[in-house]
Amino acid sequence: MDIILIPGFWLDASSWSAVTPPLVAAGHRVHPLTLPGLESVDADRSGITLRDHIDAVVALIDTFDEPVVLVGHSGGGAIAHGAVDARPDSVARVVYVDSGPLADGGVINDELPVVDGEIPLPEWSIFPDEDLVDLTDELRAELRAASIPQPARVASDAQALSDERRFDVPVTVIACEFPSSLLTEWMAGGHPYVAELARISDVELLDLPTGHWPQFTRPAELGDLILSIVSRD
């Protein structure tokens, strides 16, 4: 199986390096992405849009003859969902890592502080406590050292979706900072945060209790969990 790994904000392909070993050992072909504008701290991010990131995923999908699995962490989940909308017949499953599908017209996060047209990784105090579970001082230093400023428009551009076949693509959500039981409650209650997820016909919810960055705090367990998911498809 070809597995495309889409990082969340501030991260590049290397952020998946501790997650991929069990997938590779099982014979899967992994394709961790570095999205446009995240090539280095010196890259030009000024004109990069949310659509540019979606198009980068779609371009990679188009290189394969068989349907792929998309794995999206955090803001990468919105990008994965945009790619599913563009290529619903070419995606076998989407795995959302502490993330979920972003509905048409929604934005990933337009409240993050923009500095000179880009979004550096903010101070830890801006994040809620749930985000930071298991993120030790050492891991915080590692994540910050690896971070690259995020193109501002990726965070604030509106999602544009048009193909309702996106709701037919199976989804697995790996719930980290909030338990799957809470997501189930929200879906049943019509919470707007999970409105798009609730419209998908085949949704599986799994738990990996930790903070918002499991590829740093529980990478081996995340890799094993993704492997268990794709091994069934």
UniProtKB/TrEMBL annotation:
Hydrolase keyword on record: yes
Pfam families named in the record: Abhydrolase_6
Entry GO MF terms: hydrolase activity
Entry annotated with the keyword Lipid biosynthesis: no
N-terminal signal peptide: none
Gene3D superfamilies for the chain: alpha/beta hydrolase
Residue stretches making up the AB hydrolase-1 domain: 3-222
Protein name in UniProt: Alpha/beta hydrolase
Organism listed in the record: Agromyces atrinae
Upper lineage: Bacteria, Bacillati, Actinomycetota, Actinomycetes, Micrococcales
